[in-house]
Design goal:
By secondary structure, the protein is mostly helical. 78% of the residues lie in helices and 0% in strands.
Length: 134
Protein backbone atom coordinates (compact mmCIF):
# COMPACT_ATOMS: atom_id res chain seq x y z
CA UNK A 1 0.00 0.00 0.00
CA UNK A 2 2.91 2.38 0.72
CA UNK A 3 4.25 1.68 -2.77
CA UNK A 4 1.00 2.77 -4.38
CA UNK A 5 0.56 5.84 -2.17
CA UNK A 6 4.09 7.05 -2.81
CA UNK A 7 3.75 6.40 -6.51
CA UNK A 8 0.46 8.26 -6.71
CA UNK A 9 1.94 11.27 -4.94
CA UNK A 10 5.03 11.77 -7.10
CA UNK A 11 3.77 10.59 -10.49
CA UNK A 12 0.40 12.26 -10.07
CA UNK A 13 2.01 15.42 -8.77
CA UNK A 14 4.42 15.67 -11.69
CA UNK A 15 1.70 15.35 -14.30
CA UNK A 16 -0.93 17.37 -12.44
CA UNK A 17 1.47 20.28 -12.20
CA UNK A 18 1.96 20.56 -15.96
CA UNK A 19 -1.37 19.28 -17.24
CA UNK A 20 -3.59 20.83 -14.59
CA UNK A 21 -2.14 23.70 -12.62
CA UNK A 22 0.02 25.62 -15.08
CA UNK A 23 -2.58 25.74 -17.91
CA UNK A 24 -5.19 26.94 -15.40
CA UNK A 25 -2.88 29.74 -14.27
CA UNK A 26 -2.65 30.83 -17.91
CA UNK A 27 -6.41 30.70 -18.34
CA UNK A 28 -7.13 32.90 -15.32
CA UNK A 29 -4.97 35.62 -16.78
CA UNK A 30 -1.70 35.60 -14.89
CA UNK A 31 1.26 37.16 -16.68
CA UNK A 32 3.36 34.66 -18.65
CA UNK A 33 6.56 35.64 -16.80
CA UNK A 34 4.84 35.05 -13.48
CA UNK A 35 3.63 31.64 -14.67
CA UNK A 36 7.18 30.77 -15.79
CA UNK A 37 8.55 31.78 -12.39
CA UNK A 38 5.91 29.72 -10.57
CA UNK A 39 6.58 26.76 -12.89
CA UNK A 40 10.32 26.96 -12.30
CA UNK A 41 9.91 27.00 -8.52
CA UNK A 42 7.30 24.24 -8.44
CA UNK A 43 9.27 22.07 -10.88
CA UNK A 44 12.30 22.14 -8.61
CA UNK A 45 10.19 21.33 -5.56
CA UNK A 46 8.38 18.53 -7.37
CA UNK A 47 11.61 16.96 -8.62
CA UNK A 48 13.01 17.00 -5.08
CA UNK A 49 9.84 15.43 -3.73
CA UNK A 50 9.89 12.85 -6.53
CA UNK A 51 13.50 11.96 -5.69
CA UNK A 52 12.55 11.32 -2.06
CA UNK A 53 9.58 9.20 -3.13
CA UNK A 54 11.68 7.24 -5.65
CA UNK A 55 14.25 6.45 -2.94
CA UNK A 56 11.45 5.29 -0.66
CA UNK A 57 10.00 3.11 -3.41
CA UNK A 58 13.44 1.63 -4.07
CA UNK A 59 13.69 0.71 -0.39
CA UNK A 60 10.25 -0.94 -0.54
CA UNK A 61 11.30 -2.88 -3.65
CA UNK A 62 14.55 -4.04 -2.05
CA UNK A 63 12.70 -5.16 1.07
CA UNK A 64 10.11 -7.10 -0.95
CA UNK A 65 12.25 -8.53 -3.75
CA UNK A 66 15.88 -8.27 -2.65
CA UNK A 67 18.79 -6.01 -3.57
CA UNK A 68 19.30 -7.54 -7.01
CA UNK A 69 15.83 -6.36 -8.04
CA UNK A 70 17.18 -2.83 -8.48
CA UNK A 71 19.14 -3.96 -11.54
CA UNK A 72 17.28 -7.05 -12.75
CA UNK A 73 13.65 -6.03 -12.29
CA UNK A 74 11.87 -3.58 -14.59
CA UNK A 75 10.57 -1.67 -11.59
CA UNK A 76 14.07 -1.29 -10.19
CA UNK A 77 15.43 -0.14 -13.54
CA UNK A 78 12.65 2.43 -13.85
CA UNK A 79 13.32 3.68 -10.33
CA UNK A 80 17.04 4.00 -11.06
CA UNK A 81 16.29 5.86 -14.28
CA UNK A 82 13.90 8.18 -12.44
CA UNK A 83 16.51 8.85 -9.78
CA UNK A 84 19.06 9.59 -12.50
CA UNK A 85 16.58 11.99 -14.15
CA UNK A 86 16.16 13.80 -10.80
CA UNK A 87 19.93 14.06 -10.40
CA UNK A 88 20.33 15.28 -13.98
CA UNK A 89 17.61 17.92 -13.45
CA UNK A 90 19.32 19.24 -10.31
CA UNK A 91 22.79 19.14 -11.88
CA UNK A 92 21.65 21.06 -14.96
CA UNK A 93 19.65 23.54 -12.88
CA UNK A 94 22.65 24.30 -10.66
CA UNK A 95 25.53 23.93 -13.10
CA UNK A 96 23.99 25.18 -16.33
CA UNK A 97 20.90 27.27 -15.47
CA UNK A 98 20.46 28.59 -19.02
CA UNK A 99 19.88 25.08 -20.40
CA UNK A 100 16.12 25.05 -19.86
CA UNK A 101 15.60 22.42 -22.55
CA UNK A 102 17.76 19.93 -20.62
CA UNK A 103 15.73 20.64 -17.51
CA UNK A 104 12.52 20.00 -19.44
CA UNK A 105 14.02 16.82 -20.91
CA UNK A 106 14.97 15.55 -17.44
CA UNK A 107 11.49 16.38 -16.17
CA UNK A 108 9.88 14.50 -19.06
CA UNK A 109 12.12 11.46 -18.55
CA UNK A 110 11.10 11.47 -14.89
CA UNK A 111 7.42 11.78 -15.79
CA UNK A 112 7.45 9.01 -18.37
CA UNK A 113 9.40 6.70 -16.05
CA UNK A 114 6.64 7.29 -13.54
CA UNK A 115 3.92 6.50 -16.06
CA UNK A 116 5.58 3.24 -17.07
CA UNK A 117 6.16 2.41 -13.40
CA UNK A 118 2.43 2.80 -12.74
CA UNK A 119 1.79 -0.06 -15.18
CA UNK A 120 4.09 -2.43 -13.27
CA UNK A 121 2.82 -4.74 -10.52
CA UNK A 122 3.23 -3.83 -6.87
CA UNK A 123 6.26 -5.56 -5.31
CA UNK A 124 5.41 -8.57 -3.17
CA UNK A 125 1.88 -8.81 -4.53
CA UNK A 126 1.06 -11.55 -7.00
CA UNK A 127 -2.39 -10.20 -7.85
CA UNK A 128 -4.14 -13.27 -6.48
CA UNK A 129 -6.14 -13.48 -3.30
CA UNK A 130 -4.60 -15.92 -0.88
CA UNK A 131 -6.88 -18.53 0.59
CA UNK A 132 -6.71 -19.32 4.25
CA UNK A 133 -5.44 -22.80 5.04
CA UNK A 134 -7.42 -24.69 7.67
Amino acid sequence: MLWQLTQMLWVGGLWLLHIGLLPVLGKIGLAPLLIDEIASMLDALMVGFAAACVIFQALVLVQAEGLASLWRDTRGQLLMMALFACAMYVAVRIGWPDAVRWQVFSYLVLGFCGLVLVLQPVPGWSGRVREAHP
